[in-house]
Write a structure and sequence with these properties.
The chain is mainly α. It contains 3 helices and no strands. The longest helix is centred in the last third of the chain and has 21 residues.
């Protein structure tokens, strides 16, 4: 089950990046919204995954 959650988070992170959430102010705003909905831990996990996916995307370019 944990693999499914990791895959879901990876997809979500890529989706937010593709929607243009790439600057610090925009990501901070997104993380605040996610914190209100899902809690701090889930929001910070998403932030970390977005950073990871951003690095992967830039490495491929």
């Amino acid at each position: 089950m944990r693999d499914d959650e990791n895959y879901r988070r990876e997809c979500e992170a890529r989706e937010w990046i593709n929607r243009g959430y790439t600057s610090k102010p925009m990501v901070d705003q997104l993380i605040m919204r996610i914190t209100e909905i899902r809690g701090k831990e889930a929001a910070e996990e998403l932030r970390a995954e977005m950073r990871k996916q951003w690095r992967l995307k830039n490495d491929m370019l």
